[in-house]
């Protein structure tokens, strides 16, 4: 099979080819260098879709909610893209399929594109790849893109916040709300959802969240938007339309306001940071290029130390890689 | 409380002060810049201790084995340092205490120093910090240092391999051996241990591992050392002395041989890479320093793209940071 250049795939993607969309997401995920100019162009043309970051601790009912939201958006005629980030499965090296299986009913709908991505290793490349995937879906014409992440781990929480509207899902009971606070998940919410609100103990969680909000935990730039708490039952369908209404209201509140500009600037900074990490680390990853044997030797003889050797390695590599920028 | 300079702590550490040892490990873990020159000096003076990397999938009985090995080494009069790396607990932000609790009997022994470290975030700083901690224990006069990691996740496996002798623990049953192969754990072993060998199904695991080894899965630089498979029962104590004998034999086989030099060069390369990652990423971590507002603005306006902006950010930052090295 011949390698289709990424710009050719991009043209096919714009013509509605979902195979090309999938290929480009895979290249973004793998960090293929050839795909970067195409992804850079994609970024410059993206920004039309509404990106919903949706997160919550495991068991909070995120995936079921995503399915319900997607079904409701489809009824309104919107095309929906879903990027689901699962915790890395060390044994399979791939994403756990649970979320995907729960979404089979949607998977046969040509107006829905679902992509599971694994959280990979320790290079922070997951955030960059997920946001590249969101842009690809945007340029491919999906109106709403749901970026679903597990609300555990700094990167997973941050990437859900790198969206237009962040929805944090809490389930009643089990002290989830306390765990979530500790994980730093609750504080990123533009909208709180209490799932499984058909359950008796849901009211307690609703009250707890509302009280937390009035206690002024959520101050700062968010004050221009009153964070709502929405009860949702994926079982009865209660609250799903209310939630969509709140999401639309948040979109409007951030469309052309200082609140929105500030948010987009923060997302851009996050994106910049994660991309810089990717570009830097790929030069220093085992196997990418052999290090200087002399550096490694002086280190293994303890004639040098890791900090001095690393500075030298960085200066050397960077001088070569970034000589044009540095000139 | 006044801040004690790291070089002052280092002097106290050399005089046998374990409080100073703990403080310096904490500074290495936190990535305190002030501690770096001291840690660099520590590296240059380390290398006397024998470092045992010990890993295995969860439930393989690693921690119990570490306790048994430590007790046996103590009987021989050796001082033992233990660095245990637990999976990051997203809720507490700290290490899970299970391993530490299992070691309480050792914790009261002044010839044993135990330190649990969390695996932090996505910056790869864990490996660097753990190896700095090993050096500190080395310079503090501990004869054997056990670096225990969970054999799940690339970094955790690699750091166990950044040692003088790597011991991989497998438990009988449960298909662990297959899981471990997939995780890339088995291939790093200098010595295989089958734990819980008082159990009926242990023989099967012993045979499987031996067969795998004769099938030539383990070729390459390891050929100069025949990888043994040792059955150990922490319950009956069987095999612990045998294991210590094998570890001593491996130490001798690598002391002043090409096999050992090659290994130390590989460990040095790994160390160099992880330290370079730390030095690079800390410049680009949110909050460390504000990014150029102009860069973030052009990105949020989509007048630029993340790759172009990241290259500019890197070139700019690096030029400032590494101007002496680049001159």
Automatic annotation (TrEMBL), chains A, B:
GO terms for molecular function: GTP binding; GTPase activity; kinase activity. It comes from the Bacteria. Gene3D superfamilies: P-loop containing nucleotide triphosphate hydrolases. Residues 48-265 form the AAA+ ATPase domain. Pfam families: MeaB. One of its GO terms (biological process) is SRP-dependent cotranslational protein targeting to membrane. Residues 49-249 form the SRP54-type proteins GTP-binding domain. Keywords: Chaperone, GTP-binding, Hydrolase, Kinase, Nucleotide-binding, Plasmid, Transferase. Belongs to the SIMIBI class G3E GTPase family. ArgK/MeaB subfamily. PANTHER family: LAO_AO TRANSPORT SYSTEM ATPASE (PTHR43087:SF1), LYSINE/ARGININE/ORNITHINE TRANSPORT SYSTEM KINASE (PTHR43087). This is Putative transport system kinase.
